[in-house]
Amino acid sequence: MTKDAKAFICGCKGLSLEPHERELIARHRPWGFILFKRNIGDPAQVAALVASFREIVGREDAPVLIDQEGGRVQRMGPPHWPAYPAAARFGEAPGGVEAQARAARLNARVMAADLTAVGINVDCLPVLDVPAPGSHAIVGDRAYGADPQTVAALGRAVCEGMLVQGVLPVVKHIPGHGRAKADSHLELPRVSASKKELEDIDFKPFKRLCDMPLGMTAHVVYEAFDPERPGTCSPVVVERVIRGSIGFDGLLMSDDLSMKALSGGFGERAEAVFAAGVDLALHCNGDWAETGPVAEAAPVLQGLSLERAHRALELLKIPQQPLDLVDARARLHLMLAGTV
């Protein structure tokens, strides 16, 4: 049940929860928990950390998130887990889009099996951003291709692969980070493209995957819609673009509120997110001097946001499809080489 959860997601500092972190999580009852490389040791340690969070909040299905994309963005890696290819590798694989999608789907299933083995049930992928010429490399090979059709086809395959293995995907960074000429971790990007350009290219993959359960916003100013506020904090972008023209009605979370694209105090950032119509505030770095104000600003999850959360978690009840990991890894290697 999520009825007593507050509308935010938090992280922690290390490999286990410190006493003060346990107390703050128990007091504020976040809807979810997110892991980074600093939180990853070996499989037993990760499983214990995940279980400790769920025990504190009292919800067996409490979402535990990770950014496990492959390539540059992979929190669980060698020696305990394989190194997975970046998204671009699938868009470059031989055999055309259908073959690429089969490989992307299988890769997602294998990654999801790694996650469910330690109790993680949400993966912050696929990246549905379409990189534009001259854009910042922050997206780069995290994208499945340079055209919206390929990105949408491979993105859907990844979502399907995750879902059949018991992991919820998060489409990101909605409505599109591909034109940004700055890294939103470090500064606020501004996009001057017209509404038509954005609708014809950037928004298309998100529109085609608008039925997915979870989405993550972009800290990007889209001047054609709101020249003052980044999408994460813009009621215009959230309501007219994400909920309106894109048609996304899943549970919408912000990108990390600790990123430097945003300004103001952390309570103010969270308030702006909720005022814009975003369902959940995400704060990642585990610093409770920052997370605390976010937690205080976060309302109890209720209304449409609660309904969206329930719909997402219901998908975790679908029986997982059996997967022979040794065989799957061997087939994936052959698929990427174009020999099957």
Structure description:
- It is a single chain.
- The chain is of the alpha/beta class.
- The chain has one domain: Glycoside hydrolase, family 3, N-terminal domain (TIM Barrel, Alpha-Beta Barrel), CATH 3.20.20.
- It contains twelve helices and twelve strands.
- It has an eight-stranded parallel beta barrel with strand order 1-2-3-6-7-9-11-12, surrounded by six helices. It has a two-stranded antiparallel ribbon with strand order 4-5.
- α9 packs parallel to α10.
Q: Which helices and strands, and how do they pair?
A:
Layout: E1 6-10, H1 19-28, E2 30-35, H2 43-57, E3 64-66, E4 68-70, E5 73-74, H3 87-91, H4 96-117, E6 122-123, H5 148-164, E7 168-174, E8 190-191, H6 195-202, H7 204-208, E9 214-217, E10 221-222, H8 235-245, E11 251-256, H9 266-276, E12 280-282, H10 288-297, H11 303-314, H12 325-337
Parallel strand pairs: 1-2, 1-12, 2-3, 3-6, 6-7, 7-9, 8-10, 9-11, 11-12
Antiparallel strand pairs: 4-5
Helix pairs in contact: 4-5, 4-12, 9-10
Identify the notable features of this structure and list them briefly:
340 residues; TIM Barrel; globular; alpha/beta; 12 helices; eight-stranded parallel beta barrel
Low-confidence segments, ≥5 residues, pLDDT <50?
none
Number of helices: 12
Shape: globular
Structural class: alpha/beta
- Overall strand count: 12
Largest sheet: 8 strands, parallel, barrel
The percent of residues in helical segments reads 40-55%
In the CATH hierarchy, the architecture is Alpha-Beta Barrel
Return the domain count.
Answer: 1
Task: Tell me which oligomeric state these chains represent.
Answer: single chain
| CATH superfamily placement | Glycoside hydrolase, family 3, N-terminal domain
Strand order of the largest sheet: 1-2-3-6-7-9-11-12
Determine the CATH topology: TIM Barrel
Estimate the strand proportion: 5-15%
First and last CA, distance: 44 Å
